[in-house]
Amino acid sequence: MEVTFFGESMLALSRESLQRNVGGYTANIAIYLARLGRGRNTDVGFASGLGVDSVSDILLEHWQEEGLNTRCVMRIDNKLPGLYFVEKALGGKASPTIHYWQNDSAAKYYFTGDSSPLDTAVAQGDIDALYVSGVGLAVLKNESRGRLVMLMRQIKARGGKIFFDNAFCPQRWHRNEAIEWYSQILPLSDIVFLDESDEYLIWGDEQSIATRCKLLDCLEVVMRDANGNCTLWSKSNTGITQENLKLADINKPINAKQTKGAFFAAYLAERLLGNERVSAAHFAHKVAKRVNKCNHGLIPMTRMVDLL
Description:
Radius of gyration: 18 Å
Largest sheet: 9 strands, mixed
Order of helices and strands: EEEHEHEEEHEHHEHEHHEEEHH
Strand order of the largest sheet: 5-4-1-8-9-10-11-12-13
Number of strands: 13
Shape: globular
Distance between the termini: 18 Å
Strand content: 15-25%
CATH architecture: 3-Layer(aba) Sandwich
Number of domains: 1
Low-confidence stretches: none
Helix content: 25-40%
CATH topology: UDP-N-acetylmuramoyl-L-alanine:D-glutamate ligase
């Protein structure tokens, strides 16, 4: 199976000697899945917009070196990748402070033409599964979000899989916008990945997360809390099963966002192999603990060879 991710391409800068890294929340999840998928019969593709410039060339080369299929990357004239700056966590903060410059990034314009590479791939029946995150949705304008949801429906109609991650970026869009689009995508999703903190930022606390997942007909839900504990929900003919896993032995996460993304990628890698949910969550926690030691972005491949 090939899992194609849609997301934003970004260049990351950090204070340490203005070190430059390639990044992007969804791109990093795709890379972790590609690493874990090697030898497991799982291929990974990435769909995004890039400019026609040297920085975009660096991002594209990096993705290809990590084993991502880039056939659905579109180069767009006069546009650039997004940029973010990482400040090291100070004063006991759990995660670094991140500053974004991405209001006019190339990914925002991916669906503005008559057809994108992802449209073409879906029309040809070449997409087995699509992974979309809330941060990827936030990049797009409403019309483009509609195009993406339409592609999800087409993939589902052909027997493909949809994976959705609720990652929320309040700097990019209002919670009411997120609710509108999440409500359309959640019922289409085969596996839903939730960050508990983001759930409350988006929906508030008037309704329990479990009730909402049931009402939106979610088939399988994986939720992490701020401490790294995990709750699993699954729907079957006999009803809803809930499993609460006490996994929290990650103290003061250095980069909670990337740790969460690595957890989701590892869980998905195990589930695509057919491994059961609890086992997948324990493996995902092991990967997340390794990633937690990194200040930003991806950990080097050499630090996870034993996990592959």
